């Protein structure tokens, strides 16, 4: 636990340039919406840290995007963290979200030669898109009737 707190403290200090004076682990981000600890834990593939953050409140922000539009799933996919990708999908991460460059998690995993992850994510994207289209069709049917 001490290692975990030290890691999150380090991430917060590095990414914000400030030593946090209160709430060493602030899963809700700082006043500017900075979630450096969350994104750093995903980037480095620290599954236990990610799990702890999800259990303690980050599940509702699982699809949150950084300034470049990257989600935790995109970062894990690009870094080749297969088990973390699986975990994030099970927690409700959306594989269809695009970043500011119009990349999805599948595209990023393919770009960095993580082909097995890309296949999993493409299947998930297809499923999500199919469900979204079905919802649209139902909505149009209701409006048209």
Question: How do the strands and helices of this protein lay out in sequence?
Answer:
Blueprint: H1 2-16, H2 36-44, H3 47-55, H4 72-79, H5 82-90, H6 105-111, H7 115-144
Helix pairs in contact: 1-2, 2-4, 4-5, 4-6, 6-7
Note down, in words, how this protein is organized.
With 145 residues, this protein is mostly helical. The protein has a single domain (2-144), classed as Ankyrin repeat-containing domain (Serine Threonine Protein Phosphatase 5, Tetratricopeptide repeat, Alpha Horseshoe), CATH 1.25.40.20. It contains seven helices and no strands. The protein has helices at 2-16, 36-44, 47-55, 72-79, 82-90, 105-111, 115-144. Helix 2 (36-44) runs parallel beside helix 4, helix 4 runs antiparallel to helix 5 and helix 6 (105-111) packs antiparallel against helix 7. The longest helix has 30 residues, at 115-144.
Which series of helices and strands comes N to C? HHHHHHH
Name the poorly predicted regions. 17-27
**Which word captures the global form?**
globular
Number of strand elements: 0
> What is the gyration radius calculated from CA atoms?
17 Å
Provide the domain count.
Answer: 1
Amino- and carboxy-terminal Cα gap: 58 Å
The CATH homology group name: Ankyrin repeat-containing domain
Helical residue percent? 55-70%
Mean pLDDT: 82
Strand fraction equals under 5%
What is the name of the CATH architecture? Alpha Horseshoe
Tally of contiguous helical segments: 7
Largest sheet: none
The CATH topology annotation reads as: Serine Threonine Protein Phosphatase 5, Tetratricopeptide repeat
Q: Given the helix and strand composition, which structural class is it?
A: mainly alpha
CATH class placement: Mainly Alpha
């Amino acid at each position: 636990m001490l290692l975990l707190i030290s890691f999150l403290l380090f991430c917060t200090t590095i990414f914000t340039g400030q030593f946090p004076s209160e709430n060493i682990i602030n899963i809700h981000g700082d006043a500017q919406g900075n979630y450096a600890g969350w994104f750093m834990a995903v980037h480095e593939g620290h599954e236990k840290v990610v799990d702890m953050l999800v259990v303690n409140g980050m599940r509702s922000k699982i699809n949150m995007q950084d300034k470049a539009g990257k989600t935790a799933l995109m970062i894990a996919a690009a870094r080749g963290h297969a088990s973390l990708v699986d975990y994030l999908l099970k927690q409700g991460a959306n594989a269809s979200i695009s970043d500011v460059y119009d990349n999805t998690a599948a595209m990023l995993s393919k770009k960095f030669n993580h082909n097995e992850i890309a296949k999993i994510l493409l299947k998930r994207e297809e499923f999500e898109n199919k469900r979204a289209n079905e919802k649209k069709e139902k909505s149009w049917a209701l409006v048209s009737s």
